[in-house]
# Entry
Amino acid sequence: MSETGLQIIFSLIFVASVLISSISQVMLKKSADKVYDNAIREYLNVRVITAYGLFFFSTVITVFAYKYVPLSSGPILESSGYVFVAVLGYFFLKERFTVKKVVGMILILLGIILFSLGGQIFK
# Structure
């Protein structure tokens, strides 16, 4: 497989890692909304432990993806997490989309696309 093909596949793996991390963030926020009997149950419950396990898994996947994803692309791909968290928050936390949120998400996605195509467009 060509180097470009591997970069695309591993970039998608990287974005999947960002999605997993976003899911764990929403799980932690959902857990924070609950009232617990004591402080230990606040931190030692299934949702929190699972969320931190997902964070760890996401980190391992990200390190694996950096095998072919250029270091300069990492932060750009990572910014997709803002979009994922907003969308997941809408569905699972009943958060509303405001005009500012939608404009921000569009700008983030346009930035990712421009950065991804930048090598071809600006040569």
